[in-house]
Amino acid sequence: MSSTIEKINPNLPIHLEKCQELDNEHPINVVIMFGWTNSNVRNVSKIASYWRKKGNFHILDWTASDFPYIYFTKKATQACAAFIPYLQEFGVLPTTNEDDDSKHSPTKPKLIAHAFSNGGTTGLAGLAEACKLQNLPLHYSALIIDSAPGTTSIFTFYKIFTVAQKNPIKKAFLAIVIEFLFLLVGLPSMVLYSSCTGQKTIIEFFTNVLFEHNAAKYSPRLFIYSKTDKLVPSSSVEKVIAKSVKLCGDKTRKWCLEESDHVTHWMKHTEIYEKTVDNFIDEFHKIIINTKYQTKKMYQEQPRGSRSHDPYIGTTFQRALYFVLTAILGYFLLALLAVVVLESLDLYREVGKAIRHWFAN
């Protein structure tokens, strides 16, 4: 029997795939796939095949990892509240009067968070905050954190939005436009807004939940990252891992790949990825696999278009020359703009603090 992915809120990019082969002898667990920035349900559902083939999982997908959710943590928290009725229905939100034995009973369904990049960890933290606001005692049974957390350089910010673009001319053009808009509008606006409101950055938002929030601070966590990730440096992830080891070392695990791109670890290393997650889950939780369930391929790969349909005209030399000249001019102007913006950030911070102080009084 094939599964159906349904959108559970018409205004939000969050989806549900209910387990079809119910096994009354074992609990039906829940996994939330918190997708990366610019992810979509098709991409995330491919990776969810790992959980789907286990057979005893309801799968929730979060692909609200773009504007405004990735920039405004309050929006992410509001969006994640839509998950709560389903978590209550599936029995993974414990009641306040449950004793510890009931909360950790092997017959109780488990809630696992599988988060990708900073976009995914924002959703993970947003759900914890949404439950806290409603006085609901959320507890993640396990956290799988893929390609996060980490700070992207302002000069590589464009890669978040161009990583899937194959055409080099399109990629260069988009990179220049995105960096211009980010440096001219995005970065100053974010600094000013954060200073005015006191809002945490998305990294602070996630790490606060990871280390201080009851939903996650006692949860086993597996960090999956790569030394060659160009968006989230391994050094950024390892700083968080070091703190995690210090605070809850017996529950911290990591897997560092020598070569793998951002959020592509499952796609490029599927077998060892799934084995690593299996070992992690089995170490902390015994999750019985429903062997009656047969996984079916839900999506068919579409053939790529022929190179003969390339819309770019002109000789190879002309196209290459255009690309080089555009890149040189664009990056020169970007460098000039970056100097001006970076010199102005302290001013934006002071203005924001002054505005917040004025409203407070």
UniProtKB/TrEMBL annotation:
It is found in: Nucleus outer membrane. Belongs to the TMEM53 family. It holds the Pfam family DUF829. It is a single-pass membrane protein. InterPro entries: AB_hydrolase_fold, DUF829_TMEM53. GO terms for cellular component: nuclear outer membrane. This is 5288_t:CDS:1. The chain crosses the membrane at residues 172-193, 320-342. Keywords: Membrane, Nucleus, Transmembrane, Transmembrane helix.
